[in-house]
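can u do me a favor
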């Protein structure tokens, strides 16, 4: 069995919905997706892109109209139970947890559904509550939890049976910055343990920090797939490079407007941000034109957020 087969694979995935008027809407159209062991792939896309429908099919909550899905080498349609045991998923929100039960009781209940019992289940639940920073709230009713706390409990639930594949739908949504950073660190560690992780997120920083590859979906199809770095570099030809310059005396010289390839300029005291067609050429010109007058000059490609917005606008 290849590494791809041990992870998550979708081939030719389609899902159609029939309208009341007899029309057919294709929410997901011919999607191919692979997440290998030890790899994290992020799926980005605007609302209505087909991300949620795709995730629901990958987790077995929704049957595909056509195409195939394998999780840990098991077919999600023909070997649904085995595939489900190989997969853990966190879809977040208020559903999927029992508000009148405590965090500990929720994990005990779901753990028994996965075949865990006795001391093994108790130790596993306690360890996971510690990992998601909920050990001090283990005996509190989940109905009293904030959205962020529920998000963390969802992740603990997804990990109960130690699955090889994880599907996480916006796991840091609703978390404060410190908790979100802890969540990212935990997800990165889980990837490092060799799990295959599919992540949907609207947080571009999260996607760039965690992802081996990024998939952009629009209109039910995969528009592009690459690393964050390659997506940013490719977009520089369309959007330009960003050059940040800090002048030592706190004053931006008027001659800077003659910088070659300049597309735009923003000033903040002695700091200026330029948008240019050729970053290397612009930096070379600045250093030659203003020798000894700059304390910092840097060039970067467009941000991942700019890339995303540009691709959405062009669709």
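np, heres the sequence
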């Amino acid at each position: 069995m290849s590494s791809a087969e041990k992870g998550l694979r979708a081939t030719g995935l389609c899902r159609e919905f029939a309208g009341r008027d007899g029309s057919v809407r294709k929410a997901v159209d011919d999607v191919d997706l692979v997440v290998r062991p030890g790899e994290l792939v992020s799926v980005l896309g605007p609302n209505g892109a087909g991300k949620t429908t795709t995730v629901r099919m990958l987790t077995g909550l929704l049957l595909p109209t056509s195409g195939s899905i394998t999780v840990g080498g098991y077919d999600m349609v023909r070997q649904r139970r085995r595939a489900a045991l190989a997969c853990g998923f966190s879809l977040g929100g208020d559903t999927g947890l029992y508000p009148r039960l405590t965090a500990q009781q929720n994990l005990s209940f779901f753990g028994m559904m996965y075949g865990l019992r006795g001391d093994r289940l108790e130790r596993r639940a306690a360890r996971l509550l510690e990992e998601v920073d909920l050990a001090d709230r283990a005996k509190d009713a989940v109905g009293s939890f904030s959205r962020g706390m529920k998000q963390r409990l969802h992740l603990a639930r997804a990990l109960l049976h130690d699955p090889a594949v994880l599907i996480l739908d916006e796991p840091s949504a609703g978390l404060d910055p410190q908790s979100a950073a802890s969540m990212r660190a935990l997800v990165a560690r889980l990837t490092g343990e060799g799990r295959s992780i599919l992540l949907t997120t609207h947080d571009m920083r999260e996607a760039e920090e965690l992802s081996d590859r990024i998939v952009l979906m629009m209109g039910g199809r995969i528009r592009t797939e690459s690393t964050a770095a390659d997506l940013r570099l490719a977009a520089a030809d369309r959007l330009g490079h960003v050059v940040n310059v800090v002048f030592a005396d706190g004053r931006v010289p008027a001659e800077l407007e003659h910088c070659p390839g300049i597309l735009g300029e923003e000033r903040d005291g002695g700091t200026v941000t330029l948008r240019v067609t050729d970053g290397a050429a612009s930096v070379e010109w600045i250093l030659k034109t203003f020798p000894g007058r700059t304390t910092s000059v840097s060039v970067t490609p467009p941000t991942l957020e700019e890339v995303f917005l540009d691709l959405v606008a062009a669709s």
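DSSP finds eleven helices and 14 strands in the chain. hope that helps!!
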